[in-house]
Amino acid sequence: MHTDEKAALTRQEEGHRQLRQLWARIKHDPSLRIQTEDPHGCSACRKPVEEPLRVCSACKMVVYCSPECAKRDWFGHKPLYEGHKRDGEILSRWKAILEQFPWTARGYVSSGAYHNSVVLIQFGLLGTDRKKVGYWVETVKNLDALMGEEVHKAPWTSLSEQEGWRLPKEQIPSLERLHEPNAHLPSFPPTFDDSWRSYYQWRGLPMTSPAALLLHWPLTVYACLKAAGIMPIYQPGPRRKLTIFYVGAQDEITFIPVFGELALLFPNTDLDMVMFGPTVRKSVAGAITRGDIKPSARYCVFKYTSPASCGSGTIRVLLDAKDADYVPSRNPSENPDVIVALNAGLGTYPSWQDVIYLAAELSIPFVVTDYSEAGVLVVRLTEMEQALKGTLPRAKNVKQEGFYFALRELTKMVKIVDVDRTCVALREASGRPAQFNEFMNPAHRFAPSILSPTACSAFIKVMVPGRRVG
Asked: Which ranges carry the MYND-type domain (predicted)?
């Protein structure tokens, strides 16, 4: 590990040490509770805002330090305020998810702390060493700076179930134990509602288990597939083959075995999930360079089959080493049944536009979750349609002119063949209502002006109609 990597790791571990010390002081005081909100910052100038807060009168969510800042920010905020308003309307549902679990209402976190840190401290799971904390190791977004040597070499390396979860046996959503003689199996067909409490009961987990901090990934994929019309098959018959392209994977590659849960949720199905993303490509490339693995286009890093009495569903997780940014192909044999992107940040990363345009043209279902409705609105599908047709209105200011220029450049790069069909699909996608996802990470916060970019899966939106599968 290089000197700068060691320094970054040392700084992160020092932050964890301070949090552990804080937890040791407060954990036995029942009057203390988690403080899930950081100090509010002005949306225009970013300065801290003192109470009482000045909020946008239209959305009631975005905070300003003065009327002058509110006026200056209005042009950029105006296209998004409806989304922010809808975010505010579901705050109570976010909080209800948070309050289901006993471990989300203890302790105190000072401002700026990691969102999950106190929960992980409670269970002895906070750290950067994979050998000590298993699947919970933080975080793979910057492999060079933050990872211990073992994780840096192969983040997807399988751990045993106990080594991965690092929890008491009764708190682990075990897949291996389901194959043991006289195992207590979840009912089939499944009887859970789309809620954490119901799912925990179905899987035989106590609500004291923090497993939801990782299970929200496979369960959100489950919700996405259902939103695309891909439903579980409970009746015996010919097996179904499904291919999911999971785009933008980052942290997920350190705990890939938790996606084995999908084998229980989609019985009588052979499911291949292919992960794409810069982190995936970089990890695989590093392993090839060191000689840890042989060059290949895709690597199968995990397989699981559920018991026959649970429907014999199978899942394979593969890593794509060819492309950092996935772009749909015009060769039908190279396209999946559905594209899924969790916590995508559609309005942040320009590479999503390629996926949106081509998925629309090729009728590939694209289901995305984002951390706010406003984030989805940033994509502005109507203007994307106008850019394809060359009918964008005259820009009114420099900011809009820059946005329109970027759109025109993107349409040239993607080279849409069937413009009319693509525009129809984009128009239909823009009118699709967002759905609330009950399986989001319960430890993440949601507060006015702080729509956390790591709060996986607040919303589900089918971006293009596509074909229905199964």
From this structure: 42-81
